[in-house]
Write a structure and sequence with these properties.
Strand 1 and strand 2 form a beta hairpin. The protein is globular. The strands form three sheets. A six-stranded antiparallel beta sheet has the order 1-2-5-12-7-10, with no helix packed on it. With 168 residues, it is mainly β. The protein starts with a helix and ends with a helix. The chain contains three helices and 13 strands.
């Protein structure tokens, strides 16, 4: 890892994320939504909203995972991110998140709740710094990391990308 990336990780106080990359929670709304006002997908109360910094490098990837909430990705710095999504009905989409809007990159993108998604940085020796906002607020009870064999059984038509962006 180069000196610039190490400095970014230190300055932003980022820690390794279970799905790959580095993160730091930057916001957690103090107010909470009672469980009875949430769907059965939630195990308890949730904060109204949460936000993190997320740094991904070309040396790793964010493995396929899903959460119970919509997640908004905001591009800040670095190379564009290739975000790979598989919707609940099996539709695959690759969305580029970055600052080159005239070349079909978007600086902000919403991943719908329940979609499987993974991310990678394609140029070698590069990184992307983004923010992720989740509402209702994120809780690890809402997070599911994909098991390669389970995802391949459910979506065999997407074998190549699933095999590339899962750990086991």
């Amino acid at each position: 890892m180069n000196h610039h990336l190490k400095k970014l990780i230190t300055e932003l106080d980022l820690k390794p994320h279970p799905e790959g990359g580095f993160f730091k929670e930057t916001y957690r709304c103090r107010e909470r939504i009672p469980k009875e006002h949430l769907s059965e997908n939630y195990s308890g109360t949730r904060n109204y909203s949460t936000c993190i910094y997320f740094l991904l490098t070309s040396e790793n990837f964010s493995a396929f995972h899903k959460i119970n909430q919509d997640e908004i990705w905001h591009f800040y710095d670095g190379s564009p991110i290739s975000l790979h999504l598989i919707s609940e009905d099996g539709t695959y989409l690759k969305q580029m998140i970055g600052s080159d809007i005239l070349n079909k990159q978007v600086p902000q993108f919403v991943v719908k709740a329940g979609s499987w998604f993974a991310a990678e940085i394609e140029p070698k020796d590069s990184y992307a710094l983004i923010g992720c906002t989740v509402s209702p607020g994120f809780d690890f009870d809402d997070f599911q990391l994909a098991k390669r064999q389970d995802l391949l059984k459910e979506f065999p038509e997407h074998q190549e990308i699933i095999s590339k962006l899962t750990h086991e």
